[in-house]
Write a structure and sequence with these properties.
- There is one protein chain.
- The chain is mostly beta strands and about 300 residues long.
- The protein has a single domain (about 5-305), classed as 6 Propeller (Neuraminidase), CATH 2.120.10.
- Helix content is about 0%, strand content about 50%.
- The chain contains no helices and 24 strands.
- A 4-stranded antiparallel beta sheet has the order 3-2-1-24, with no helix packed on it.
- The protein starts with 7 loop residues before the first strand and ends with a strand.
């Protein structure tokens, strides 16, 4: 089935490169590099457009791709390139490195995570020394927003949601809300479970988060418009006891969910469980409870048809 039939116009995704690679289900080795591939409605065969790149993010009009550089197991800086990988240009110069870009809905700015010196993506979940910044799409002086990581713009472009690592013993992770200028922020959810991604509901009235439950990550919905009963738990909308469902993104109509699905014993470690040996980007029909594999890879960015 083509991605167009699934309501997707373009998909960019990260594919890690390992040393000592054996057959799937065996020891994979150390990740030393990462490349970015693209598939689209006209060209369903994956094509590599960025070597040494990770965590892609399409611009709203689909004309540019932001990502972070990645080499020898470490993160570099945020770059922006054309959709064919040409005209690569660096837009950040953070001392500890920068990653997790996300474009503002008007395409004018990019929010990103700055890492502390000596930090790395492998220990980012739970890291204390990460901060959210906003920068112009052409670069310049970044504006600090708040401590945290993996920020996402609201559909209206006025707010940001982001994650924060544990700040006290009973809290393993938290979800925060901030104004796009960084002048106000507040804690939405303080969880005793680890978190692995958050996104806005299409109408901007709530969020979907990936949170650990029974040793696996599932996706939960949480409303911000006052319809969430006081003290109630977020509603699980996707997940099972066999796999991790992380980094959720919802379709514009809210009927489909894209996640990274893998069967590792922890979010960062591989294992050889049959039928789920490598991370896969899945599209889930929330009404039919059926999923389709879009690509084999890690973090991704999608442009939906009609957007």
């Amino acid at each position: 089935m083509s991605i167009a039939a699934l309501g997707i116009k373009e998909l960019a995704f990260e594919v890690p490169v390992f040393t000592n690679v054996s057959a799937y289900g065996g020891q994979i080795g150390q990740e030393v590099d990462s490349d970015i591939f693209v598939i689209d409605a006209q060209n369903p065969r994956p094509r590599r457009i960025i070597s040494g790149g990770a965590h892609p993010a399409w611009s709203p009009d689909g004309s540019q791709l932001a990502y972070c550089t990645w080499k020898s197991g470490g993160l570099g800086q945020i770059e922006v390139a054309n959709t064919d990988g040409t005209a690569r240009r660096q837009i950040t110069d953070m001392k500890g490195g920068a990653c997790f870009p996300d474009w503002s809905p008007d395409g004018a700015k990019i929010v990103f995570t700055a890492l502390a010196v000596g930090d790395s993506e492998k220990n980012l979940i739970g890291a204390h020394n990460t901060e959210i910044f906003v920068v112009d799409k052409n670069g310049g002086s970044p504006v600090p927003i708040a401590p945290g990581y993996e920020a996402r713009w609201s559909p209206g472009g006025t707010m940001l949601i982001f994650l924060r690592g544990p700040e006290k013993k009973e809290v393993s992770g938290s979800v925060w809300l901030a104004t796009a200028d960084g002048k106000q922020s507040k804690n939405l959810i303080a969880s005793d479970r680890r978190l692995a991604g958050a996104t806005w509901l299409p109408n901007g009235k709530g969020i979907a988060i990936s949170s650990m439950q029974s040793q696996r990550y599932s996706v939960f919905r949480f409303y911000l418009d006052g319809s969430q009963p006081q003290g109630s738990q977020p509603q699980r909308i996707a997940g099972d006891d066999r796999a991790n469902w992380t980094e959720p993104r919802l379709s514009p109509d809210g009927k489909h969910l894209i996640v990274i699905k893998d069967c590792s014993d922890s979010y960062w470690n591989n294992n050889s469980q049959s039928g789920c040996r490598v991370p896969a980007i899945k599209l889930l029909d929330l009404n039919a409870d059926k999923d389709v594999t879009l690509a084999i890879g890690n973090d991704y960015s999608v442009i939906w048809e009609g957007k």
